Task: inverse folding
């Protein structure tokens, strides 16, 4: 356990750091052309932009247990989940810049990233990806493979019909399916306590006769342990689980959100408990990495992300009439 | 091109539903990645008989009854298709799709496009359409145009058993999502009106019929009448009576809603110079409007008289027999329209 632990925790740290640096660059790229007057359709990265800064443990500490044969369906806030799953970062960045070299040749954008080579997809409709993961789990079971399928959602999606229908199906058919609920406390502006009849969604697992877990306070190490148990169970035919993790949304629902609905102290308090810093401290304290190793790892992360942005920025836009392609195969 | 290769001695008369069962059975044997899912598709055999006997032959692993969770199981079909299965999913009545349209038009229809062609979703969505038996506003619609309007899915609605089998096999083998609409009255079910047209010759061996071709089902020179499913049957009945009055009508069975076969439509109107479009869907923005627009923009010079559109007059389908009969076009409506058009 100890050695695996070390490699896995370093991998989690690398993923979280990659996601964070990727998004810090994205935050800047997104604002290009949008100042001094914010226009959502302007600049090199137009449209809505949902960043996941603060939510990295949910994805990184779960997906470290998965391989490329396992399926992940993700949300409208998908960058940390995509990066953790090993989606091609160059093609992903190019897609967000609307380039021909992007994952979807510029037809998808940041909410619609598809990389079938690592079985990753996401989408812009809250809760809609849950049954897709159930279907992937069904296919895995029918093919006799031990591959699992994991759906990521926000806590707001736990009140959708898709949540209930999908969990009932997954439990009924005893599928290798795990639902990760990233509870960042906010459904855009509506607080969880004003939208959800239970304090946490792991409680709802009982309604489907499956296992539920709650990971408190955005803890990457706890998320890592709990996820391992759920993934092992699913792989061994033990059926589905729900994992809810209390996580942090450092930024607005989307870039440009005035965030008038939340207390001014909330974000500084959350940033004071930054999970990336906490994991770094854990790695150092437990002698799992030296400061020099951490620094080398971080430099590599910056290089990989910078390369992806270079690739995206210097890629060509599609020809306008390519809009007519790919409706049918 | 139609690829019916079966020998004549292997052609039997089947109902619409038996043609569907035969298509599914042959394909399930051919490809182990095909599964059939839906409400009551198992032991019951499908409320409209499209999966009769398949459960006994292939078992619950491949013929899967689902809970009444349309978003769940149609969404699961999307995920399963992306993961390599070829799901055939039935949702009993087209009217029921309101609860699951997000999965259909935002996901099933768009994922291939949004992925730049990298994700294929070979799904067939089977659903029963149509009225005429007093099932009222929530169980009698066709909604042909609602599905035809949205990009990314093929939409077919065959009429005759031979086309039902060939187009269902083609739909299953297609790598795109296909919405396959069968008309309840054309299934040849013992508990509905018995129509001669719901029984027809079907070659025994597997064959495919293209998903993008209309079919001229009666040749004529004086007027083109275009129908879909029951409206094709009404058009043929009307054509028979018009012939007695010296009017020679050509009847086209549209078969494919999306893509629509402009070529066959334009070629026919170039010959007859007159067009009546009959639809068991709502009038506004529907098939009658689409075909009229095609003619106005690409076949205007062929037309000797204004196009006539017959469809449900923008009201929900009423329950009482006299009311329902009033809103669904029939042969007499077609005859009246044609006689008004043509002075014999």
Result:
């Amino acid at each position: 356990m100890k050695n695996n632990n070390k490699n896995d925790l370093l991998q989690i740290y690398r993923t979280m750091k990659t996601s964070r640096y990727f998004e810090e660059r994205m935050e800047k790229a997104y604002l290009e052309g949008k100042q001094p007057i914010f226009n959502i359709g302007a600049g090199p990265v137009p449209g809505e932009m949902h960043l996941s800064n603060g939510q990295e443990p949910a994805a990184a500490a779960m997906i470290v247990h998965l391989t490329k044969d396992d399926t992940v369906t993700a949300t409208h806030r998908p960058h940390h989940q995509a990066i953790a799953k090993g989606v091609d970062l160059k093609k992903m960045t190019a897609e967000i810049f609307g380039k021909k070299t992007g994952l979807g040749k510029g037809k998808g954008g940041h909410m619609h990233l598809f990389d079938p080579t690592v079985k990753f997809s996401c989408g812009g409709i809250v809760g809609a990806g849950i049954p897709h993961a159930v279907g992937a789990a069904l296919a895995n079971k029918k093919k006799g493979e031990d591959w699992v399928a994991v759906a990521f959602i926000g806590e707001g999606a736990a009140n959708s019909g898709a949540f209930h229908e999908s969990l009932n199906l997954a439990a009924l058919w005893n599928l290798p399916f795990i639902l990760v609920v990233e509870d960042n406390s906010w459904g855009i502006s509506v607080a969880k306590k004003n939208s959800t009849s239970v304090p946490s969604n792991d409680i709802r697992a009982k309604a489907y006769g499956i296992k539920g877990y709650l990971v408190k306070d955005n803890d990457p190490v706890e998320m890592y342990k709990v996820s391992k148990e759920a993934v092992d169970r699913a792989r061994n035919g033990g059926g589905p689980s729900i994992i809810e993790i209390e996580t942090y949304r450092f930024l607005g629902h989307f870039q440009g959100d005035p965030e008038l609905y939340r207390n001014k102290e909330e974000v500084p308090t959350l940033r004071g408990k930054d999970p990336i810093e906490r994991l770094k401290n854990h790695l150092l304290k437990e002698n799992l990495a030296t400061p020099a190793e951490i620094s080398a790892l971080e430099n590599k992360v910056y290089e990989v992300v910078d390369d992806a942005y270079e690739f995206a920025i210097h890629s060509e836009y599609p020809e306008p009439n390519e809009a007519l392609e790919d409706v049918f195969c | 091109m139609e690829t019916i290769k079966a020998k004549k001695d292997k052609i039997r008369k089947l109902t619409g539903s038996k043609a569907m069962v035969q298509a599914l059975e042959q394909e399930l044997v051919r490809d182990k990645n095909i599964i059939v899912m839906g409400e009551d598709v198992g032991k019951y055999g499908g409320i409209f008989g499209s999966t009769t006997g398949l459960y006994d032959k292939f078992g619950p692993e491949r013929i899967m009854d689902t809970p009444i969770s349309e978003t769940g199981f149609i969404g699961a079909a999307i995920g399963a298709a992306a993961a390599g299965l070829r799901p055939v999913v039935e949702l009993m009545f087209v009217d029921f799709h309101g609860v699951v349209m997000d999965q259909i038009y935002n996901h099933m229809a768009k994922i291939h496009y949004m992925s730049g062609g990298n994700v294929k979703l070979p799904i067939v969505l089977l659903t029963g359409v149509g009225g005429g038996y007093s099932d009222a506003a929530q169980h009698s619609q066709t909604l042909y145009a609602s599905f035809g309007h949205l990009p990314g899915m093929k939409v077919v609605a065959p009429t005759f058993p031979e086309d039902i089998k060939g187009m269902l096999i083609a739909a299953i083998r297609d790598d795109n999502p296909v919405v396959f609409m069968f008309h309840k009255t054309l299934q040849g079910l013992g508990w509905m009106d018995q129509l001669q047209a719901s029984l027809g010759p079907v070659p025994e061996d597997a064959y495919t019929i293209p998903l993008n071709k209309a079919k001229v089902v009666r040749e004529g020179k004086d007027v083109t009448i275009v129908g879909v499913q029951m409206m094709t049957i009404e058009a043929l009945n009307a054509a028979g009576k018009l012939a007695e009055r010296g009017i020679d009508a050509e009847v086209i069975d549209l078969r494919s809603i999306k893509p629509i076969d402009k070529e066959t439509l334009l070629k026919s109107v170039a010959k007859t110079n007159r067009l009546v479009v009959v639809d068991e869907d709502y009038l506004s923005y529907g098939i009658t409007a689409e075909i009229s627009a095609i003619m106005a923009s690409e076949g205007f010079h062929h037309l000797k008289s204004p196009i006539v559109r017959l469809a449900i007059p923008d009201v929900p389908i009423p329950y009482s027999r006299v009311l329902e009969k009033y809103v669904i076009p029939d042969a007499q409506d077609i005859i009246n329209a044609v006689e008004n058009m043509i002075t014999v």
User: Anything to note?
Assistant: Chain A touches chain B at residues 71, 73, 102-108, 112, 114-116, 119, 121, 123, 125, 128, 130-140, 142-143, 149, 161-162, 165-166, 168-169, 172, 325-329 (CB under 8 Å). The longest strand of chain A covers residues 177-183. Chain A has a mean pLDDT of 97.
